Amino acid sequence: MSVIAGSPTGREPYGDGVPIVVRARENLAHGEGGQEVRSRTCGEVREMRDAKTILGIIRTRGRQGLPLEDVYRQLYNPELYLLAYGKIAQNKGAMTPGLTAETADGMNLAKVQALIETLRQERYRWRPVRRLYVEKKNSTKKRPLGLPTWSDKVLQEVIRLILEAYYEPQFSDLSFGFRPGLGCHDALKSIYYAWRGTIWFIEGDISSFFDKLDHQVLLSTLREKIHDSRFIRLIENLLRAGYLEEWRFFETLSGSPQGGIVSPILANIYLDRLDHFVENTLIPEFTRGTERAHNPAYNCLTARVSTLRRRGRHNEAKVLARVVRATPSKISDDPTYRRLRYVRYADDLLLGYIGTRSEAEEIKERIGVFLRDELKLELSESKTLLTHATTEVAHFLGYQIRMERDDQKRNSQGNRTLNAQPTLELPKTVIKSKSRLYTRRGIPTHRKELFNDHDFSIVAHYQSVYRGVVNYYRMALNLRDLGHLKWIMETSLTKTLAAKHSLSVRKVMAKFGSRYAANNGKTYKVLRVEVPRDGKPPLVAQWGGIPLERDMTARLKDDNILERRWNRRNELVKRLLADTCELCGSQDDIEVHHIRRLRDLRQPGRREPPRWVQVMAARQRKTLVLCHTCHMSGPHHAGTRGTVKRPRRRTSGEPGAVKAASPVRRGVGGKGAGQVA
Length: 677
Description:
The chain has about 675 residues and is α+β, with helices and mostly antiparallel strands. Helix content is about 35%, strand content about 15%. The longest helix has 23 residues, at about 265-285. It is globular and about 100 Å long.
């Protein structure tokens, strides 16, 4: 068996210590062949590589800038599908049907093999997505959301893994959206630590980016580095699969499927050309000088202050020192010094420029021209703004950003530390919008819809919402303004519990009130609910105890933690590969049963839960590996709570026609997203 290692030489594309088996060229039509590949030099059979090895090889090629070839064959490897399934099975949308009733429930190895066989014969057809509309943040408009079928989700995730492994090492360091290990806080930190002295902000927003993404531009971008027509054609068919809205089919002549798993990585590949244009063309062109020139007036004043102090004229020196504090030490409009900085998160752009307004206008215009001519996109006129960094605020990723100006604030060395320093602030509109759910006519009120929930769930819900807001705005200079939101939510919480139990608010505080010692050494008044358990520590839900202290090292729990877990075989995949029914021990036709929520296992009025419920409740798992007989004959597939209800079927009447669930639009007489009529 021939193995290549070391640095790539000649026609050997792999290297740097990664051993790669050279496979023979396929002579069968369009990839018809097994996973066992023989070497040119001997007749030994090569074992199929695991997902980690395959993605590592692809990542190495991307890091070295080498083209990706024969990638379609990697879609024959079931290890990639198991990795994809282990990831997306944990998503809330795994049990939401698309055009058909197929969901994660009933997933098995036979489905993986059938999917691979269809791809090998190039007979796979993407189904149109079921389109819903969801409310858009801070807008009366609604955002379209596509729901793919389960098989399409799995295949999209495999494609995403391959594309991410190859393109991620090549993406610009100035892009932060939809990237593993990066998030909103990383983008904001790059502004806070590196944009000192910015004079102008250029706020850019691409108009309807996901709807207007040009297919030909995207496909030509992919063809530059992926030399595999079958893989490109598979993505092209995905883009053109269309969507169904109220049982009417619509073609997708442009855009990427919103809600599609592969859409974020395709968006980054598309806009990577913009990143490199700014980084390699605009930034070098609009960067001059090493530092701002010193202000002669400031030097003269400081010298005069020193002279007065030496001569003992301290009162005059003190008066003149006040003038020095208000005088800039450098020339702010130095024509020999220019800086342009850039950051992008998805389709939102922010540029910071040290220079004149006319030059900032030119930069804005050139970005618009590049988007229009090269990427067939347009900047939103209403959201693309030129903002003065000191007298106005820019908006980016939910924060307000401006440059601080304070001549009096100094550090221990006497330097003005705040001047020209970027400041991240919490917008007042955030507190107003978050408070709306818990107030009526501006007064905190109870929430009737929570009366039927357990006290534990009510307190946990309030705490999770508040903690999420605090954690996201942890870097804001005015973080303490969230104290007003805390008061509103706490008043609403106590009124909710009081109305539920027919108590006064004072008695609620006496019943649930407690004290909590936080990690910062302070003690806080909190509301605490405990649920005792036999032989185990009690479940605890707590309201409050979250310090409102600014932390510039704060970071959301981004995907890098989850990515490390997904890159190794997770517990669900191991149970599936064990090929044993967890109820009867059979090893025939093994598949996985999924439920949406653990609380669905608790049905009121049920005397003794069946064994499958007892097993899932004891394990605290939303999945159960079963044989086909147990799966289809058990009560969990007899319309009980805990599974997706079987929809009323519609069919065209043709023999063999697929019966599909009817789509429902949110807010238009329907039951809401994720339900079927």
